[in-house]
């Protein structure tokens, strides 16, 4: 699979940020892949603390760290002057440098020189691999689930990660497939779909989720929304190339307009379900919705359960807040589908 691959364990570089808002990448890694994170490095006293051991570059190298991961989002998306010496030191020490910045790491002359001299990689997570194919539309073995949103930033990555974890806990075979820069860092591999030239988005999605065992689920991180005025193109390409058998709709309770596009009303969950089935059935006629994942943090505590119960009555689907309810209700549906698929395959083999 032609994807970006990272080499753990990681030293999470937090620069000089002091608020978690600007350290979401590092926080995501610490939460979802703690076994890959050996330590953290902050340049300031009172900086963000991810609960990882504090390390210098030298200490990280001595403990077997293989990559320094930039876990912060800087204004402007570039390498801050205050970071440069530490990144160069890490490269000179033999650590790969990994970042999801808007600029290539090699554009920094000092860092490029240090990396070349020590033979380490400068990994730009937001740069897709070369020579991606056009989508074929051919059916692949294994099963797939894609998280779809009513908008951006409604929990598609979180839902996919929570599903993967819950399915594995239930003894099911499942893999998280990252399609965004933070997801790639969490997974250690993946493909930044939003940076792919439009003609190759579906082909990239096919590579992201290749043939697998019949009872294996790929849980694919969704991007954008089918009705988004700015990002629907990437959503459509990802949906067609993923060929999902199942999907979960992600939503934030109380959101009524497309974030950043306030002239556009947010579609209903039912509209997203219908549109996803209509588009997704082009490459997988069996596509269907198995549940709804809702961020209910905007609701009062006594409003949360009635809201979800009303959604369940309207849609006939399990509706959960993964932070509070977990994913068991949706996982049970997927478990039953896995058993049914395995029974069909066994019958066909007779």
Automatic annotation (TrEMBL):
Organism, as annotated: Parahaliea aestuarii
Gene3D superfamilies found in the cross-reference section: NAD(P)-binding Rossmann-like Domain (3.40.50.720), P-loop containing nucleotide triphosphate hydrolases (3.40.50.300)
The name this protein goes by in its record: DUF1611 domain-containing protein
InterPro entries: DgcN-like, DgcN-like_C, DgcN-like_N, P-loop_NTPase
PANTHER family: DUF1611 DOMAIN-CONTAINING PROTEIN (PTHR40690:SF1), GLL3100 PROTEIN (PTHR40690)
Domain D-glutamate N-acetyltransferase-like C-terminal intervals: 134-331
Superkingdom in the source lineage: Bacteria
Residue ranges of domain D-glutamate N-acetyltransferase-like N-terminal in the record: 43-128
Spans through the membrane: none
């Amino acid at each position: 699979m032609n994807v970006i691959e990272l080499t753990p364990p990681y030293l999470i570089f937090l620069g000089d940020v002091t608020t978690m808002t600007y350290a979401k990448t590092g926080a995501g890694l610490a939460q979802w892949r703690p076994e890959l994170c050996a330590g953290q490095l902050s340049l300031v006293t009172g900086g963000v603390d991810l609960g990882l051991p504090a390390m210098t570059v030298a200490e990280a190298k001595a403990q077997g760290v293989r990559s320094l991961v930039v876990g912060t989002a800087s204004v402007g998306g570039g390498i801050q002057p205050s970071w440069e010496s530490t990144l160069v030191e890490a490269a000179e020490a033999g650590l790969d440098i990994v970042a999801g910045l808007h600029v290539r790491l090699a554009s920094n002359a000092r860092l490029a020189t240090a990396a070349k001299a020590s033979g380490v990689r400068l990994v730009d997570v937001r740069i897709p691999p070369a020579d991606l194919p056009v989508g074929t539309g051919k059916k692949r073995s294994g099963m797939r689930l894609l998280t779809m949103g009513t908008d951006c930033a409604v929990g598609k990555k979180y839902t996919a990660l929570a599903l993967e974890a819950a399915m594995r806990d239930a003894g099911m075979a499942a893999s998280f497939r990252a399609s965004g820069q933070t997801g790639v860092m969490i997974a250690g591999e993946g493909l930044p779909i939003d940076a792919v030239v439009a003609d190759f988005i579906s082909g990239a999605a096919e590579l992201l989720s290749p043939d697998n065992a019949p009872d294996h689920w790929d849980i694919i991180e969704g991007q954008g929304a089918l009705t988004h005025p700015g990002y629907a193109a990437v959503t459509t390409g990802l949906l067609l190339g993923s060929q999902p058998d199942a999907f979960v709709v992600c939503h934030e309770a109380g959101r009524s307009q497309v974030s950043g596009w306030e002239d556009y009303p947010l579609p209903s969950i039912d509209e997203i379900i219908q549109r996803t089935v209509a588009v997704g059935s082009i490459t997988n006629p069996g596509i269907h919705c198995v549940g709804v994942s809702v961020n209910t943090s905007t609701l009062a505590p006594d409003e949360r359960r009635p809201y979800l119960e009303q959604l369940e009555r309207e849609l006939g689907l399990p509706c959960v807040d993964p932070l509070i309810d977990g994913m068991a209700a949706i996982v049970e549906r997927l478990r039953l589908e896995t058993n049914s698929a395995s029974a069909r395959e066994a019958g066909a083999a007779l």
